[in-house]
Amino acid sequence: MGLGDHPKIWLEEHSDQVVWQPLSDFEEQYMPEIWRNPPAEALQAGHGGGDYFEVREFVDSIINNTKSPIDIYESMDMTVPGLISEVSMNRDSIPVEVPDFRSIKRFPEDFAK
After folding, report:
1. What gap in Å lies between CA 72 and CA 82, rounded to an integer?
2. pLDDT confidence of 109, banded at 50, 70, 90?
3. Is 80 exposed, middle or buried (0-12, 13-18, 19+ CB in 10 A)?
4. 13 and 25, same domain (yes or no)
5. Which of 8, 51, 55, 93 has its CA 20 to 30 A from that of 34?
């Protein structure tokens, strides 16, 4: 995929050979209806509606006292790598391990040293 190219994906169950297809070919099959046809307020929120849907689902889980679709560990999986990359950059780009918070019983105070 080059600059300006459309996102592509290869799914083994759709081809026994490595054939990269436009991601848009799979929208109907895999993308929820609300994402394919988002409300105007979602599009106005930016990031293709991604922020809107995450916040909406989180608020709905609080209001309805239901489980949030993204738990604390998934949240950390999406956030910590970016933070750790800054640590790496500040250390002359040396590799820095990204912790798996599922295995940490207590957060070490000296983690970012």
Report:
1. 16
2. low
3. middle
4. yes
5. 8
Pair 27, 44 in one domain: no
Look up tokens 């957060």; give the residue. 107
Tell me the whole-structure pTM to 2 decimals: 0.55
Q: How far apart are CA 47 and CA 53, in angstroms?
A: 10
105/76 same-domain check = yes
Domain that holds residue 104: 71-113
Tally of structural domains, the chain: 3
Residues 55 and 78 occupy one common structural domain: no
Q: How far apart are CA 78 and CA 112, in angstroms?
A: 18
State the distance between the two ends of the chain, measured CA to CA, in whole angstroms. 37
pLDDT tens string 23-57: 999 999 998 898 889 899 998 887 877 889 889 99
Per-residue pLDDT of 10-26, as tens digits, reads: 998 888 889 899 999 99
* Token duo for residue 106: 């207590």
